Each structure stands twice: as C-alpha cells, then as structure tokens.
C-alpha cells in the first residue's frame, strides 16, 4: 500500500523555521470537515484504505548528519520492497536523504523538481546540508540519472554554474511551458517545494518569491505527468506564515493529486 510519512524537521532552514509543524497541519485538512478526500480524477484518497499513514519521524537531535541518517534508514526500510512513499513536511534539506534512499532502490532515478529555487548551492551559510543545497548533494552521489527543475525564478550565477556542472535541465518560470512533460523518463520521483507557487496562492512558505505558478498550473503539470510516479515529497510548507490554513489546504490538495499519481 502507498505510504505517507511526516518529516517534522526544519533545522536546515536558512531564513525562518516553521516547516517542522507542517505534517500535522496538512493532515488536519483531511479531518476538519471543509474538504473531501477525492482527487480530481475521481479517486478517493482515504487514510487506512488508499494509503497507510505512518505518522511522523521523531528526531532526537537537530544534528543534520544524525537526522539525515535517521531519515535515510527509515525511508529505505519503507520502500525497499518496492512500496511507494509520499513524505510531507520539513524544509527542503530532507529531500537529500529521502531521494538518496530512493536512488538506492530505483536504479537510474529521474527527479522532477518544482521550486522557485534551484537548491543547488555547493555550500550555503556554511551549511552543506542547507535546504538550499539538497540537489547539489544528490547530484554528486552520481546515482541520479536526470534532474528536471521547473518554476525557478531566483537563479544566481553560482547556481547556473552548478546546473551546467551537473547537467540539470531547467525550465525557468519566465520560459514556462509544457514540453518537459514529454521528455520525462522513469523511474520518476517528484520533489515539490510549495514556494514554486506564487505567494498570492501559497503565502504559508518561508521564502515569498513573486512571479510564481498558480495552483491550477501546478496541478495540471502534475496531472499531465505521463508516468506512474515512484515516490514524492511535499516540502517547505510553513504554518507560521499561513493565513487561515489557506496554504495547508493547498498542501492537502497537492498531497491528494500526488498520491493518485503514485497508485
Ligand atoms: N528550499 C528553499 N526554499 N530554498 C530557498 C533558498 C533561498 C536562498 N536564499 C537562495 O538564494 O536561493
Ligand atoms: Mn526548495
Ligand atoms: Mn524554494
């Protein structure tokens, strides 16, 4: 059965803390009575039936090495017999150990990454495990077959160099179009940073980067991915910046749309 795992970890956030509160806030949207559990394709996404909610990882330490070891080991254990896992919450640094575990199980892994940011810094704020660096760490393992980044609007010179160095395919927000969908290959993993959305649609993120996608655009990209997705994460939701749980509901909606791509 499809699995859901909360990763309440934000010690590697460079600007604000808060994404550690994300998993429960997103789950709350499943329970509080406003929404229903149907994805737009008509499949109902029910905890205990459509997916098993594994709860949250619990961290004894904020030391990134220890935390990442815990995440990598647990994720590997959950997916090692081919099970599919969606993880929610945490800052984007957690995608390094999560995707690293996936790349061990799924050889030649391809990543589709939605974000305002490339998160390719060699080292950010003297923290190589920063949420601004997970894709540098992943690319240097040599185990990632391809990385496609969509929605970027903050590329620095350093990150352009890093993208060239690692052969990253980038569709910047200013050039946004659908052609990348037809070039995606399997096994495909999706990493979704909520700040790919315009802050008008998703204010509950740490980094408000104007000029982003609409919720509708993002949902249709996900729906049009022509492959069954083998794993995904939803990161960077920050409840401390949210208004009336509006962004929690966006997160819940995206969670359902991601889940039905994994069934
Ligand atoms: N995972 C993230 N939200 N990363 C944001 C990193 C932002 C960083 N200030 C930059 O210049 O790119
Ligand atoms: Mn990110
Ligand atoms: Mn981002």
From TrEMBL:
<dbReference type="Pfam" id="PF00491">
    <property type="entry name" value="Arginase"/>
</dbReference>
<protein>
    <submittedName>
        <fullName>Agmatinase</fullName>
        <ecNumber>3.5.3.11</ecNumber>
    </submittedName>
</protein>
<dbReference type="InterPro" id="IPR006035">
    <property type="entry name" value="Ureohydrolase"/>
</dbReference>
<dbReference type="InterPro" id="IPR023696">
    <property type="entry name" value="Ureohydrolase_dom_sf"/>
</dbReference>
<keyword id="KW-0378">Hydrolase</keyword>
<dbReference type="GO" id="GO:0008783">
    <property type="term" value="F:agmatinase activity"/>
</dbReference>
<dbReference type="InterPro" id="IPR020855">
    <property type="entry name" value="Ureohydrolase_Mn_BS"/>
</dbReference>
<comment type="similarity">
    <text>Belongs to the arginase family. Agmatinase subfamily.</text>
</comment>
<keyword id="KW-0479">Metal-binding</keyword>
<dbReference type="InterPro" id="IPR005925">
    <property type="entry name" value="Agmatinase-rel"/>
</dbReference>
